[in-house]
Amino acid sequence: MAGFETLALSVVVGRGARHESADQCGWAHLLEHMVFKGAGERSARDIVEVIEAAGGHINAATGHERTSFQVRALKGGLPLAMAVTSDLVLRPVLDAGDLAREKQVVAQEIAEAADTPDDLVFELAQAEAFAGQPLGRPILGLEATVGAATPQSLGAFRDGLYAPDAIVVSASGAVDEAELLALAETWFAEPGRAAPPPAEAAQFVGGLAPTARRLEQAHMVLLLPAPGARDPDYYALRLFSEILGGGMSSRLFQELREHRGLAYAIDAYADTNADVGVLGIYAGTAAGDAAEAASVAAGELLALVGGLRSGELERAKAQLKGATFMARESALARAEQAASQLLLFDRTIDAAEIAASVDAVTPADIARLGERLLAPGRCVGAVLGPKRSTLAAERFRKTLFG
């Protein structure tokens, strides 16, 4: 594409922590770490030095449904970026000594998350929402399950997780399409391996997780079951969350923070997987205000289900489109978005189509979505903080459902 001086390459595997068994909890994340310890003919140092010596940056991330390897580079850097990411995905070494050391690193990462209240409370909520299911287990894993991995078992796990049927190679910026296709054929063409079984269907279970801890503040995550990314109500969900708590003009921000002073941090969000999602609320409050804040948040949610206020939907549409278009200013964001769309819909979706889908949402769609959120009669209330703050979990449930 003319005019660009940088590029981004994203190699995305359409599998992640959701494809682990219970005794493999954390292996997708561990594997993402391990491929950087040596791949192809390159050592761990070689992998990063060769990219950085060319002015680039390399990274990776593991989610429940995807594992992505990303390189940002200067114009002309695509051949090197493709060669290195191909080695990471298809030819990792998985040395026993490296694995022993990396288990220690991951154990520290698990401990750090446990010591970070506004991280831990999200894990508590996710565990309640999808109890007993892969989506309910932590992506970082557990020390016991991570510790059980061997080079052989992790290698067999990689064969399925990174099978070519679910690999998308996506690039944006200073990229020539013909060069990209030729390099993909060179570096990612290999005999197919058997893919693992599809991830099990997820079901929102719900529950309360009041967890007392000696903290100065209370942290809470409140969830309702929501449609997934492939659902026709996806854009209605995104707009509902925007109106509820997406910005400073949102209902939650105005009522809880500006009007009542109950929360120093408050927002709502939609988190979606292919088949299932959640509508979430996060709040950070003083311990003595937590129960009232949870009740008020539930009340605002119910009020939104009851009807829109003048200008809310139009404002939310403008914000959602703005966020979508601004994100596309990043070459890496464009590459990642295209890969995600291919994995979800087997095609890419341009900005104009996204905007049209957002604009097509009506007040009736928002009302229907609201009823869908409440219809199962299930929610999650996860609260982490001083003992008196843990009453907030039950207050949220009771305000919603009586």
Q: Would you mind describing this structure in some detail?
A:
- The chain is of the alpha+beta class.
- The chain has two domains: 6-188, 2-Layer Sandwich (Cytochrome Bc1 Complex, Chain A, domain 1); 207-401, Metalloenzyme, LuxS/M16 peptidase-like (Cytochrome Bc1 Complex, Chain A, domain 1), CATH 3.30.830.
- It is built from 16 helices and eleven strands.
- The strands form three sheets. A five-stranded mixed beta sheet has the order 7-11-8-10-9, with helices on both faces. Strands 4-5-1-6 form a four-stranded antiparallel beta sheet, sandwiched between helices.
- A hairpin with a 4-residue loop joins strand 4 and strand 5 (67-74).
- Helix 11 (290-306) packs across helix 15.
- The protein starts with 5 loop residues before the first strand and ends with a helix.
- 45% of the residues are buried.
- The mean pLDDT is 96.
Residues in β-strands, percent: 15-25%
Which consecutive residue ranges, at least 5 long each, have pLDDT under 50?
none
Using only CA atoms, what is the Rg? Answer: 22 Å
Q: Helical proportion?
A: 40-55%
Treating each run of at least 4 consecutive H or I residues as one helix, how many helices? 16
User: First CA to last CA: what distance?
Assistant: 57 Å
Number of strands: 11
Computed structural class: alpha+beta
Q: Strand sequence of the main sheet, in spatial order?
A: 7-11-8-10-9
Q: Name the average pLDDT.
A: 96
The shape is: globular
The name of the CATH architecture of the largest domain is: 2-Layer Sandwich
Order of helices and strands: EHEEHEEHHHHHEHEEHHEEHHHHHEH
**Largest sheet data:** 5 strands, mixed
The CATH homologous superfamily of the largest domain is called Metalloenzyme, LuxS/M16 peptidase-like
Tally of domains? 2
